[in-house]
């Protein structure tokens, strides 16, 4: 999904130009960041009834959802890379820190744009140890390096009358960098900061890739969830509805369908908050169908980690469906949904978690 680096030389640039190739970083929509489609929210609370929903701290719930799935994905990524099994239950603060130094000023002085790839690799190493703040510093420096590189190109253009500007847009570089900083703020639970970066990333990606491209959708989707975390419910609903409208006709691959399911489930949660229980049930039912399709395909043709994470996300959507069916007194459908979810969670989670406890109680 990444775009290759610009070539070292370009026929549209005069031979006297000092333009250098610029590394295109990857978005951290991966097990060490936040994978596309992984923020599937739950309505369940430890107690019952409509009053329980008023107690949901959505900021905490969204952060919990992010880290729950991330632990599962990260553990499988480590296994696939040959590391010993990590059950994902260790808190960030208790994990061993990496030995990588972070000195932003030094990096700026010594390397500039040449260090973009090194900065990206070092940030990933920090993320593997859940050192989000350190990774954030490095990704902010990537933005600085890009700004300096394109500033230099602008100066080159002014000095050299034979310099012809390439059509390669700065926005394609900036979009990925802004998106990554948004991801890191989300991991820290700083959703107001994350929102501003996702909004700007979405604008940059829209200009470069076009509206509805999977990269554009990813930033739009996460911006809407940041609105949700800040209790901007109307804005969140409009954002997720836009994602649904853009994505539904274009779904082609697993990540597209995962993002579609994510948007529909979270629209279901918002519909429930607005008192539209029937609409919520419809969204949850459609979400379950999409996730079941993804799960079936991943069992036969994808990595085990995809199947396991899809099973976990499916169980959350099934719980949401079971909850709204319970409130509408459709107890048979409710019990079926909860039992299916409970089976998946028992298989996937080594210890009893709050998610499992909520499911069992309901």
UniProtKB/TrEMBL annotation:
Pfam families: TPR_10, TPR_12. The keyword Repeat applies. InterPro entries: TPR-like_helical_dom_sf (IPR011990), TPR_rpt (IPR019734). Keywords: Repeat, TPR repeat. This is Uncharacterized protein.
